[in-house]
Amino acid sequence: MDIFRFLDWQVYKDSKALFKLIYGIVSKLPKDVRYELGNQIIRSSFSVILNLIFPVACYRVLYYFGG
Fold first, then answer.
1. Cα(54)–Cα(60) distance, rounded to whole angstroms?
2. Following CA atoms 12, 16, 22, 26 in sequence, which dihedral angle do they give, to the nearest 10 degrees?
3. Distance (Å, whole) CA 47 – CA 12
């Protein structure tokens, strides 16, 4: 079984590309906006990636350690 099979998913690749795009846009914002609103935008876009990976990680823990 491939441990990191999500790396091949198109939705994972697209979410990484979206994160890079958003990070680039936020880095061009004025400093006062970047540290307040920009931080929240970056965290929420990174959350998309983590929400894709989390179920896979939980399954791995249950599979390997029983549950």
1. 10
2. 140
3. 12
Q: Three-class SS string for the chain?
A: CCCCHHHHCHHHHHHHHHHHHHHHHHHCCCHHHHHHHHHHHHHHHHHHHHHHHHHHHHHHHHHHHCC
How far is residue 45's CA from residue 59's CA, in Å, rounded to a whole number?
23
In degrees to the nearest 10, what's the CA dihedral of 13, 15, 4, 6? -80
Q: Which two tokens stand for residue 24?
A: 């680039």
Query: In this predicted model, what pLDDT tens digit does every residue of 17-54 receive, in sequence order?
Result: 999 999 999 999 999 888 889 999 999 999 999 888 88
Nearest-angstrom CA–CA distance, 2 and 27: 36
